[in-house]
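Example A, followed by Example B.
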Amino acid sequence: GKSYLVWKSLAGKLSAPGNHVLPTSGHYLLAYDKNGNFQGVNPMQLDVYDASFMCRLKYNSHDGLLYYYGETYPYGASGYVKMNNTTLTKRYFMAKYSTTGGFVSVIESDGGGFGGMQFDTDGSMYLTGTGISGRQHLGQTFSGSSSGAPYVAKLASNGTVIWMKKAVTNAASSGNDVA
């Protein structure tokens, strides 16, 4: 097993480990083996400017991809988050990257967030998060009087929703993690 770290850096030298030259400012993916030995650094097709960017990273051993998911808050009209040179237009996202930092795909949503993620041995994904009342998220419409309701969902390895269960709450709440 490897460990991965997403890191934002200025252009220059990554002196530890390995004296690597980082040609441009941006986000980089660092890889380490199971013993903590440095395996490499690669640029990601990710650009964040004047925006808050809160994310989590999970590795799926079934498809060998990294799942990078979270939410963005541009601070003003000039703020943005770009993946693969395309500006994200919605608050919540779930992106797939190769283990060398290459962009694969992204799902965006204004109808709910991604709080936790887990994979089983056949590659199915289990998600939890918050669905916003009256909005679409992963093909489901959330209803109720609260501004947010927790959900848990199972997705096939191709991303198709197999099932989704929504909790009924009297106040805004969210699903934070799943095991």
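Example B, a separate protein, is given below in the same form.
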Amino acid sequence: TMTADKKHVINAEDAFIYETQAKALTHQDQLIPYNTASVTTNTGGTAAPVVTTGSWANIVAGVHGSYDITYSYGTGITQGSKTVILTVVPDGTVFPPSKDFALYAENGLINVDQAKALTSQTDMIPYNSASVILKNGTHVQPNVTTTSWVAINAGMEGTYPVTYSYGRGSDYVSKTVDL
């Protein structure tokens, strides 16, 4: 929460939106529920914040990425504002209950020579487009596990399940895809 010089208080938080949800938006005010944005006025009432972003075209095009969204209310010394992050993620992204981070992975292909060149299971991450995105837009590496590592690394043709996961505290999420 950010307090504007003795007056209006703007509440908003970093958040995620699926690509198809972003493409369905028609007005910037529709971002308010995603960032749980609200205003407590200097008189103790509530109001809808003004929404601004320089990235509206990318958001409604469903371009994956993290975008600054500014929520504001009032003018002069009563004005309050807060800038937060809205991250557009691919459909199929999974979240833990807190929605503090997102995990994405998709089925992938790797040729025999590429498979034989892998030096660890984490080397499979780009082949499954696997990624963990924190609520603030930061990317971190997911954990990787597969019971088929020996077969994959030997370049044996086939389809193998690979599980990507990530956890923080009691939050945990995983997704299994094929390679």
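On Example B: DSSP finds four helices and 14 strands in the chain.
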